[in-house]
Design goal:
Number of helices: 8
CATH topology: Glutaredoxin
Oligomer: single chain
CATH superfamily: Glutaredoxin
Strand order of the largest sheet: 1-3-2-4-5
Radius of gyration: 29 Å
Strand content: 5-15%
Shape: globular
Largest sheet: 5 strands, mixed
CATH class: Alpha Beta
Number of domains: 1
Number of strands: 5
Order of helices and strands: HEEHEHHHHHEEH
């Protein structure tokens, strides 16, 4: 009786082992789909809103290569990026006709971010957007601590010789409040979650992305590659 039990156990063990081996062979021949591994240095293309007449543009809007920056006037990294990278690019690439530069608001750091962006748009009504834009970046002093209060924003307009009555009425009315919110939402929809965040476009398509305040050499290398 004992021998029969042993023989039965051995037979069952052989059957189980055979099933395991067969399963392993089947799985080894079956291709399991996996997510593709991105190549180092590549970036996912973003679907970005085309450049239009509503944008703040420096240079020829019909340029084949365009740099679009999403930034916040209170962001200290944006301030450094402006002085160390954007200004040289304006001189060497925009003013020479090689590319166009577009600034888009991503006002995410608080109420003074939104108000300063609105103020720049109000300055645009008088043809002084870029003067006001530059003044904000060169006069940063903390975040939401009153530096970009309504009173100071109005004082900046006076310093830049804008029509203060027109400017103050524009700022107080909230004329551009929704436009700033929309620009920030559009940025978030394409993956912007901090500033500065820039895109290099060629023939309307994103070919490179700059997520952060990268040095001038890094950014110009991407621009030069797009210009080839």
């Amino acid at each position: 009786m004992e021998n029969k039990k042993n023989q039965l156990s051995i037979a069952i063990a052989i059957i189980i082992a055979g099933a395991v081996i067969a399963g392993a062979v089947f799985l080894s021949k079956t291709k399991v789909p996996t997510a593709p591994t991105p190549k180092p240095g590549t970036e996912a293309p973003a679907t970005i809103k085309p450049v239009s007449s509503t944008d703040f543009i420096q240079g020829n809007p019909n340029s084949k290569v365009v740099m679009i920056e999403y930034a916040d006037f209170q962001c200290p990294y944006c301030g450094r990026f402006f002085s160390g990278t954007i200004q040289p690019i304006e001189k060497n690439y925009v003013e020479t006709g090689k590319i166009a530069y577009v600034y888009r608001d991503f006002a995410f750091l608080g109420p003074e971010s939104e108000k300063s962006a609105e103020a720049a748009s109000c300055a645009n009504d008088q043809g002084k957007y870029w003067q006001y834009h530059d003044y904000l970046f060169t006069h940063q002093n903390g975040e939401n601590q009153g530096n970009f209060s309504d009173t100071n924003l109005k004082a900046f307009a006076k310093t830049l010789s804008l029509n203060t009555d027109q400017f103050n009425t524009c700022l107080d009315s909230g004329k551009y409040t929704q436009a700033i919110k929309d620009s920030t939402a559009e940025g978030a929809a394409i993956g912007v979650n901090g500033t500065p965040h820039s895109f290099i476009l060629k023939d309307g398509k994103v070919v490179s992305e700059i997520n952060g305040a990268y040095p001038l050499a890094d950014v110009t290398a991407k621009i030069d590659a797009a210009l080839k």
